[in-house]
Design a protein that fits this description.
The complex is a heterotetramer of chains A (676), B (169), C (100) and D (323). Chain A is an all-alpha fold. Chain A contains 28 helices and two strands. Chain A is 75% helix and 3% strand. In chain A, a hairpin with a 2-residue loop joins strand 1 and strand 2. In chain A, helix 3 packs antiparallel against helix 4 and helix 4 packs antiparallel against helix 21. The relative contact order of chain A is 0.07. The radius of gyration of chain C is 17 Å and the shape is elongated. The model of chain C has no long low-confidence stretch (mean pLDDT 85). Chain C starts with a helix and ends in a 13-residue tail after the last helix. Chain C has 100 residues and is mainly alpha-helical. Chain D is globular, with a radius of gyration of 20 Å. By secondary structure, chain D is mostly helical. Chain D folds into two domains: 65 residues; 250 residues, no CATH class. Chain D starts with a helix and ends with a helix. The chains are: A mainly alpha (676), B mainly alpha (169), C mainly alpha (100), D mainly alpha (323). The interface between A and C is small, with 11 and 12 residues.
Chain lengths: 676, 169, 100, 323
């Protein structure tokens, strides 16, 4: 089965061709075609995963063709199937398929229906290339491909100014990150002489620490852009202008985790440069708490999710940074389930409210009391929220608290502290969202009220699937013995960070404690303390949200009055966009204007001056030319004319005369040969 | 034996050519040239160039010369026979040609050519030189061959454009 | 085996006959025919050399010469036909538009 | 065995072939008249000999004894040479035809190519005859003939390339031997159709007998000929029919090789096949009307030329891919 891995990206490619070229023909069937292709891909993935998980595993390279051969650089298009890419394939193909199906319902009746599914399949193709590549260049192709699709899909409703602006913003910010990524690739090639994973990792142990750190930081700049880390996260909240399934698929479940995947994939290089890991851990932790705090006060339902995504990505990078690569990938997987579910649920709500005024469709202040109208959506969202908040036994608990335990036991106490605070905020804002949307009195516009009903099955079934995954997706791969099955499975693909023994032991202890807690026994004080703390934080956040938004609904307003500065700061997202505008965009504009002025005045002045000088000089030399030079020329012409009159009789116009002369020439040549 | 045939053919060629050059009637000249070509084909066979002999007859005699005859018939040649046939520079030209001939004779008399090599095949034996010629023509000389084909195409288009009567409606 | 000199001499004689024909005749068709003769004299030398050195290159070039001759005949006759149509004559020494 | 003996043997062979061929050709005229007559519900020649069997000899004698008229304004030399020029190539070709695996005058490396080359000379005689007669009918016939034969020679040449590619040789013997399993007509039906049509045109036979069209040109290029010279044209035409039939049999119908188990000598097979081919020629003459000149050219250049090119391409492709 593994040798058929090339089939996986082939199906989405077929979908792209069918929907892209025959879009006007397939029309309403575009969604079904695209979903069929995604489903076929998923089937192949499942087949491969079955072999990888139940079989001996291992790392397999499936060559397709040689792509570039230039000098010592040789890049082939070939696919790598190993535990890490298996997990990623499962996430991408699984969540991707579910969201394709969901989109059939969500995008129904949109004028750009075939175009949407063309882009969606193109995205699948690029993302699959990204995770299956066996070298950095092919990965970069996928990397750029998903960036392109992200741009296309954010700006899908391009007639809306804000959507096309958001698309451009995402593209440009990603470009900045990609520049770093490219530099990283150049550096890798310079230092190791190859771009294929196998050879780079073989050469990695010989890398000096500064070199490895440089590579790691440059690659991380790319990851910052793609995975929305400080300071390049600004595009992700704006990306919510795209259709909701896009937000769920690209900006929550898959594309934004590409950076995490890349770091995990490159872990053999990263462990050689611990400096880069420290930076990653710190940036991740800061991003986690920073965006979680913004998420506390946002009113747009999708923006809350967006900041939550940024925050959770921060968690994943935190895991990478502290060396808990497997935990990060684990969280990536669970996050794909519950965050995808949250977005799809939000999409379901927005879908139900599409008769409300445009400004109110996504604003939680105009929702409330939807629980009875949309029970399936509600219960699915609650499951997702519990998973995100980290309440056992939901998925988030297993993965997130593994990360926190990893940070704690590897000695990154600051990171751990920031992470725990962010976890508290997470639990608060996600339940704030649940309560504002589904509980309390209904604040929906009166016209829209009677149109609110549960979404069609094509949308709710994906919700239920993802809900089930959110419930069991953590406990099944993460449950003891030891650190859980997923650690054992992923181990061959990932490098061991320095001090990994303590970390692994800590994770194991926490798991053991959890197991013991479930059984009623207890040992491992720190582990138990961590677990208790984590559960307390989650429940505390939920309780706080319950108190502020259900019991005492006036509390938010009171707080707002008491800390007006802080509230505005958070509501306006720390003014980061404005700061960028003022500090980067405006100075560039000003520089350009200055350069333009310089060009107008100095450069053009010099040019004009020199032309003026040239004109005068030309006039003077013109006089000389007329008198002296022309005189000489005319004299010559006169002489030539005289001789021409003489010799013109040679030109008789008769071909045979000429030929006769030619024959004479031959005669002379032979004579020269004879009598030399 | 071979030499005898060579002299026979050579005499035929030279005689036919001389007659050809001096004919007033163009048709007679063309027919004499055909005769010269046929002798030449015999000479080629003698020199082991059997395929070339075939080409000489098929293309030159059977194709090009028929084209000449065809064209001559389209033009009115009856008048031309009664006109002055020789150019005014004739005597000079003849003198130059004879002088040049003498010089060439002198050059040839010096001799001194590298020794002869034998063919890999004899007369009338198989495989003939057609296979060998094809082999060379389509491998070593493929590019000149293609160039020649382009040349023929260009000549065809040129001939059609030149000879076409302008149709005015 | 015929000596190479014989082929070369024959070629030279034919070439000179052809050249003399080109230079001495007025009739354009005669000139074209003489040119054909000259081309063929070259073929004879080619074949002679091919025979001498057992190298097929000479024969190959003879074939190219024949191709060129075909082109020359086609274009030349086309020119003659249009000339004959426009001016009702074929004497080359009356065509001197290129005179000074 | 001295060179003289070889020469004598060759001369004897030549004499035999020449004599037999002349006789056969003469009787071809009889055959044609008889077959056409029966197709048209007539009897044909019946008076001279049994069922008119001696008719060709009587005709020959008549033509031989007739006055040989040379028109006053004709170009005498060319006028006399023309019939010879027609007849000679037609007979020269017989020197390389393999009548059976053992009986032939000589073998040439370029066998089939030689036949093509020499038979292309036949047009000279016709052109010369047409021009030398100094008659407008003759000249028109000669012009038509030159254009027609020049054009159709191309298709004739191209159509045999397909079988030649399969045989891999120009030698007639080898071509025949290459067909010991399957005749090339089954591999190359397109080539055969084109070959046959081009052969009809090359031999100036109905439906392509434009150069001598009785109803328009009063017999075309040989209007002014009489007596033995006229007989030469006649002989040449039938000799050409024999030649193209022979080539057809050699290239497409396996030459002297028999069909499976029937134990007949190769020569008999050869004659049988040749007879069948010639019968088809005569049959066509009795059946089809004449083409118009523009139709003839259109058929050639716009239909047969692409067809035969496609055939060569396909043959090459198949040979490259599968052989």
């Amino acid at each position: 089965m593994i040798r058929y891995a090339w089939l996986i990206p082939l199906f989405p490619l077929a979908g792209v061709l069918i929907n892209g070229l025959l879009g006007s023909r397939v029309r309403d069937k575009a969604g079904h075609v695209a979903s069929l292709m995604a489903g076929l891909s998923l089937l192949v993935v499942l087949g491969i995963a079955r072999e990888m998980i139940l079989g001996p595993g291992g790392s397999h390279v499936v060559p397709v063709w040689t792509w570039i051969t230039a000098g010592s650089l040789s890049v082939s298009v070939s696919f790598l199937v190993d535990p890490l890419s298996t997990i990623m394939l499962l996430v991408v193909a699984g969540v991707g398929f579910v969201i394709h199906v969901y989109s059939i319902g969500y995008m129904h009746g949109d004028p750009g229906y075939p175009r949407f599914f063309t882009y969606l399949n193109l995205f699948m193709l690029s993302m699959l290339l990204l995770v299956m590549a066996d070298n950095y260049l092919l990965m970069f192709v996928g990397w750029e491909g998903v960036g392109l699709c992200s741009y296309l899909l954010i700006g899908f409703w391009y007639e809306k100014q804000s959507a096309s602006d958001a698309g451009k913003k995402a593209f440009i910010v990603n470009r900045i990150g990609d520049a770093g990524f490219l530099l990283g690739l150049f550096l890798i090639w310079t230092l190791t002489g190859s771009l294929s994973y196998a050879e780079v990792f073989k050469a990695a142990p010989q890398l000096a620490a500064p070199a490895a750190t440089a590579i790691g930081l440059l690659l991380f700049i790319g990851a910052m852009g793609k995975s929305a880390q400080i300071p390049l996260y600004v595009w992700l909240p704006d990306a919510m202008e795209g259709p909701t399934p896009v937000s769920a698929l690209i900006h929550a479940a898959t594309m934004v985790t590409a950076g995490v995947y890349m770091v995990a994939r490159t872990s053999p290089v990263y462990v050689q440069g611990p400096g880069a890991l420290e930076v990653i851990a710190l940036v991740g932790a800061l991003t986690a708490i920073f965006s979680a705090s913004i998420g506390l006060v946002q009113n747009d339902i999708k923006r809350v999710m967006a900041y939550s995504t940024v925050s959770q990505l921060g968690f994943m990078f935190m895991a990478m940074g502290v060396g808990a690569f497997a935990s990060g990938i684990f969280h990536l997987m669970t996050h794909a389930f519950f965050k995808g579910l949250l977005f799809l649920g939000a999409g379901s709500v927005i879908h139900a409210l599409h008769h409300a005024p445009a400004a109110q469709q996504q604003d939680m202040r105009y929702m409330g009391g939807l629980r009875s109208k949309m029970p399936v959506t509600y219960w699915c969202l609650v499951a997702a929220a519990l998973a995100l908040a980290g309440v056992p036994p939901f998925a988030g608990f297993w993965s997130k608290d593994e990360i926190l335990a990893g940070a704690f036991f590897s000695g990154h106490y600051v990171v751990w502290g920031l992470g725990t605070a962010a976890a508290l905020m997470t639990a608060f804002y996600v339940f704030r969202m649940i309560f504002m949307t589904f509980h309390g009195e209904m604040r929906v516009d009166h016209h829209a009220r009677e149109h609110i009903r549960e979404s069609p099955a094509v949308m709710t079934v994906p919700l239920v699937i993802l809900a089930v995954l959110s419930v069991v997706g953590g406990v099944l791969p993460g449950f003891p013995p030891d650190a859980g099955w997923i650690h054992k499975f992923l181990a061959p693909s990932l490098a061991k960070a320095p001090g990994h023994a303590a970390l692994d032991e800590g994770v194991r202890v926490v798991k053991a404690a959890a197991q013991a807690g479930a059984q009623g026994g207890g040992h491992g004080t720190a582990g138990i303390a961590l677990i208790v703390l984590a559960i307390a934080v989650a429940l505390g956040g939920i309780a706080l949200a319950w108190r502020m938004y259900l019991r005492d609904t006036a509390a938010p307003a009171r707080l707002e009055r008491r800390f007006p500065g802080l509230y505005r700061l958070l509501l306006n997202k720390y003014y980061v966009d404005e700061i960028y505008q003022a500090c980067i965009v405006e100075p560039i504009y000003r520089l350009m204007r200055a350069l333009f002025d310089f060009d107008q005045k100095v450069v053009d002045g010099a040019v004009n001056g020199s032309s003026f000088l040239t004109v005068w000089f030309s006039r003077i030399s013109g006089i000389f030319d007329l008198r002296t030079v022309d005189g000489a020329v005319n004299g010559t012409a006169g002489v030539i004319g005289f001789f021409s009159q003489l010799f013109k009789f040679i030109q008789s116009g008769m071909v045979q005369n000429y030929l006769f002369v030619m024959l004479l020439g031959v005669f002379l040549m032979v004579s020269a040969y004879l009598f030399r | 034996m071979e030499l005898a045939f060579f002299y026979l053919f050579a005499a035929g060629i030279v005689g036919a050519s001389l007659l050809m050059v001096t004919r007033a009637n163009v048709i007679h000249a063309a027919l004499l040239l055909v005769l010269a070509f046929l002798f030449m084909a015999g000479l080629f066979v003698l020199a082991g160039a059997e395929f070339l002999a075939g080409v000489q007859i098929l293309i030159y005699a059977g194709g090009i010369m028929v084209l000449y005859l065809f064209s001559i018939m389209l033009m009115n040649v009856g008048v031309a026979v009664r006109l002055r046939q020789w150019h005014r520079q004739s005597v000079l030209a003849l003198a130059a040609a004879v002088l040049l001939g003498a010089e060439v004779w002198a050059v040839l008399g010096r001799g001194g050519y590298p020794g002869a090599k034998a063919w890999g095949w004899g007369l009338g034996q198989t495989p003939g030189n057609v296979e060998a010629l094809g082999e060379v023509l389509y491998t070593k000389f493929l590019f000149p061959f293609e160039v020649a084909s382009i040349l023929l195409l260009a000549a065809m288009i040129g001939a059609i454009v030149l000879a076409k009567r302008e149709i005015t409606r | 085996m015929v000596p190479l000199t014989h082929y070369l001499a024959l070629g030279a004689i034919l070439f000179l006959i052809g050249a003399a024909g080109v230079l001495m005749r007025r009739n354009a068709i005669m000139i074209l025919l003489s040119i054909e003769l000259m081309l063929n004299s070259v073929n004879i030398t080619f074949v002679g050399f091919a025979r001498q050195w057992a190298d097929l290159t000479g024969q190959v070039f003879a074939i190219f010469v024949i191709a060129v001759a075909a082109c020359e005949a086609a274009v030349g006759l086309a020119i003659l036909i249009s000339l004959n149509r426009d001016r009702q004559m074929m004497n080359v020494d009356e065509i001197n538009l290129l005179k000074w | 065995m001295g060179i003289a003996v070889e020469a004598v043997i060759a001369l004897v062979k030549i004499a035999v072939v020449l004599g037999v061929v002349s006789l056969v050709v003469a009787y071809l005229t009889y055959l044609e008249r008889k077959i056409i007559a029966h197709i048209q519900q007539r009897l044909g020649p019946m008076r001279v000999g049994w069922h008119g069997l001696l008719q060709p000899i009587a005709d020959g004698a008549k033509l031989f004894l007739k006055e040989d008229i040379i028109p006053d304004k004709a170009d005498k030399v060319v006028f006399v040479i023309a019939p010879i020029m027609v007849l000679v190539p037609a007979f020269v070709v017989y020197s390389v035809l393999p009548f059976s695996s053992t009986f032939y005058i000589t073998q040439v490396n370029i066998g089939i190519f030689f036949i093509l080359a020499v038979s292309s000379l036949g047009v000279f005689g016709i052109v010369m005859a047409g021009w030398a007669s100094n008659s407008k009918y003759s000249l028109l016939g000669a012009l038509r003939s030159a254009a027609q034969m020049l054009s159709y020679e191309i298709f004739l040449g191209f159509s045999i390339i397909g079988p030649l590619m399969l045989a891999g040789s120009l030698n007639m013997q080898k071509i025949v031997e290459a067909q010991s399993d399957v005749w090339f007509v089954f591999y190359q039906p397109l080539a055969f159709v084109v070959f046959f049509i081009a052969a009809l045109a090359e031999t100036n036979r109905v439906p392509f007998d434009l150069p001598e069209a009785e109803t328009e040109l009063v017999a075309g290029f040989h209007t002014e000929y009489s007596g033995m010279k006229f007989a030469f044209f006649f002989l040449a035409e039938y000799a050409s029919i024999m030649v193209v039939s022979t080539v057809a049999v050699t290239l497409f119908f396996g030459g002297w090789q028999g069909i499976g188990w029937i134990p007949l000598p190769g020569f008999v097979w050869y004659v049988l096949k040749l007879g069948a081919m010639i019968f088809v020629f005569i049959w066509i003459r009795a059946t089809l009307p004449r083409y118009r000149y523009d139709q003839l050219m259109r058929l050639g250049w716009k239909f047969m030329f692409p067809l035969v090119m496609a055939n060569i391409f396909l043959t090459g492709l198949v040979k490259f891919l599968f052989l």
